């Protein structure tokens, strides 16, 4: 049993790597943009600068030749308040999953009078199916660094950290080289570009725990403590890393900043739709022909456009069954939701959320209970164990999902209450545990993990019922056999 779980987790990670690499070929480029335009008559495709469209080039010289660090120069000539109000006016929402307005976060930290503030870039990217930050780190590291320096200047921080997942070995090397180049060009360090502002960035490598992506756990990890989430409030902007006011932003959030400073809030708001301005990177994976990272304007495309247009539809021309539109911690949407626009509000209205922008696609051959079981294998291993609802809840749900998705054997009989799975009110029990987790878990992991389970019970209850029926028959067979043996 344990071995099987491990293999499934490796598959998830393997899948991310494959897609990150494949993404390089599938991003909309000047060369292939006509192909996408033909595919979408009447829809305009734009090329933005979030993802570089030439061959990946990470050197500072090339970055600067293309105007890199001119946003920083402009920012250093502005007052911190002006930068913050530009970012606030842009309506930029954090891209790390929690969807918090970036300008507001910066303003909270700016207003803190305490000295020794920190600015942290969250590059942990542990959510299954999410691999968009890796593309930015690998192909445009200076853009992320530039966004970070501007943010640090705005809030008044002189020390920053990039916390990057340890498995991203290549990205770590790329980022470290980019930081060296920035130091050598007086873009990092003392008196940046001749100004009175000094700031430097240190790289911290994660050891492979999903929970470290949660901001307060991440701070503890940097501090050398066990990475368990803290209680909020106080929020990081008041008391974060080393209990100092701290801003933490996702890689993609930061990559937006130089564009906003150079082109202005009004320009940014001309992209996307009300409540969801700008473009967004989507990592599309699962049963699609062309998995990869795609950048589109928020709210201008539907889920169907992304799945059937950009990702080329379902492999083997099978039918679509379900979609998780924002990663493994969001609610399932069914195939009748393909017309839903991909933006924060529309996805919420449809009953799910945009999450990290990881669109997981499931075709008709995929078993939803087995998929949810695999998610819970992941969650129960990644739960930090700090609070009971999540520590016990993830474990119990994982066990229960194994029981109904695998044939009953004699060992399992002792776990099944008299009468078998049918008498156990299986679905109600799963729902109860999931709701308790949602209500009582301490952090986002335990609060959001039940979402795929609860929504799958709502939309695919027939699959659960069929499995329970099957297990009931096996159970009754064993009970009968045991009776016969005891009489013999
Ligand atoms: C279990 C868990 C894992 C998370 N992992 C990440 C992550 O890998 N990267 C990330 O940017 N945010 C992650 N977050 C969200 C962060 O706590 C935080 O909200 C985010 O870094 C803030 O950046 P943003 O405002 O730019 O989105 C995670 C949250 C939870 C609860
Ligand atoms: S919800 Fe889970 S991951 Fe979060 S603190 Fe509780 S046990 Fe840890």
Question: Any overview of this molecule?
Answer:
The chain is α/β, with parallel strands linked by helices and 488 residues long. It has 3 domains: 2-45 and 282-362, Ubiquitin-like (UB roll), CATH 3.10.20; 60-269, 3-Layer(aba) Sandwich (Rossmann fold); 368-487, NADH-ubiquinone oxidoreductase 51kDa subunit, iron-sulphur binding domain (de novo design (two linked rop proteins)), CATH 1.20.1440. 48% of the residues lie in helices and 12% in strands. The strands form 3 sheets. It has a 5-stranded mixed beta sheet, with helices on both faces. Strand 9 and strand 10 form a beta hairpin. Helix 4 (70-76) packs parallel to helix 8 (141-155), helix 5 runs antiparallel to helix 6 and helix 7 packs across helix 8. It starts with a helix and ends with a helix. 49% of the residues are buried. Bound molecules: flavin mononucleotide and iron/sulfur cluster (SF4). Flavin mononucleotide binds at residues 94-98, 100, 122, 124-127, 210-211, 213-215, 248-250, 253, 443-445.
């Amino acid at each position: 049993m344990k071995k099987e779980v491990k293999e499934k987790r490796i598959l998830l990670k393997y899948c991310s790597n494959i897609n990150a690499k494949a993404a390089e070929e599938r991003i909309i480029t000047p060369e292939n943009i006509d192909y996408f335009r033909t595919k979408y008559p009447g829809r305009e495709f734009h090329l933005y600068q979030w993802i570089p469209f030439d061959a990946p080039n990470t050197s500072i010289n090339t970055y600067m030749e293309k105007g890199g660090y001119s946003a920083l120069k402009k920012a250093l000539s502005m007052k911190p308040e002006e930068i913050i109000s530009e970012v606030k006016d842009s309506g930029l929402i954090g891209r790390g999953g929690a969807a918090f307005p970036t300008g507001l976060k910066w303003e909270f930290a700016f207003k803190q009078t305490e000295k020794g503030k920190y600015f942290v870039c969250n590059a942990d990217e542990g959510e299954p199916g999410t691999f968009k930050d890796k593309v930015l780190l690998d192909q445009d590291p200076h853009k992320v660094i530039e966004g970070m320096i501007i943010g640090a200047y705005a809030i008044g921080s002189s020390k920053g950290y990039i916390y990057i997942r340890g498995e991203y070995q290549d990205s770590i090397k790329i980022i470290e080289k980019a930081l060296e180049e920035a130091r050598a060009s007086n873009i990092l360090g003392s008196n940046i570009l001749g100004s009175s502002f000094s700031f430097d960035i240190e790289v911290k490598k994660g050891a492979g725990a999903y929970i470290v992506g949660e901001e307060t756990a991440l701070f503890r990890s940097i501090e050398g403590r066990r990475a368990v989430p803290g209680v909020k409030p106080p929020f990081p902007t008041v008391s974060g890393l080393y209990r100092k006011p701290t801003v933490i932003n996702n890689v993609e959030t930061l990559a937006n900043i130089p564009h906003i400073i150079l082109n202005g809030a009004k320009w940014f708001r001309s992209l996307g739709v009300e409540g969801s301005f700008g473009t967004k990177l989507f990592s599309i994976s699962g049963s699609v022909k062309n998995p990869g990272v795609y950048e589109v304007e928020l709210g201008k495309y539907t889920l169907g456009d992304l799945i059937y247009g950009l990702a080329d539809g379902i492999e083997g021309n099978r039918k679509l069954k379900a979609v998780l539109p924002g990663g493994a911690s969001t609610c399932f949407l069914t195939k009748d939701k393909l017309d839903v626009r991909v933006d924060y509000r529309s996805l919420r209205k449809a009953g799910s959320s945009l999450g990290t922008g990881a669109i997981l696609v499931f075709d008709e051959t995929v078993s939803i209970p087995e998929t949810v079981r695999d998610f819970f294998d992941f969650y129960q291993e990644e739960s930090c164990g700090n609070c009971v609802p999540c520590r016990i809840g993830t474990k119990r749900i994982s066990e229960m999902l194994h029981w109904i998705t695998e044939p009953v054997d004699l060992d399992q009989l002792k776990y099944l209450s008299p009468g078998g799975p049918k008498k156990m009110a299986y679905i109600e029990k799963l729902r109860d545990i999931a709701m308790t987790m949602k209500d009582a878990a301490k952090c986002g992991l335990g609060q959001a993990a039940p979402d795929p389970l609860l929504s799958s019970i709502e939309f695919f209850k027939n699959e659960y019922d069929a499995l329970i029926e099957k297990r009931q028959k096996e159970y009754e067979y064993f009970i009968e056999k045991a009776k016969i043996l005891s009489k013999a």
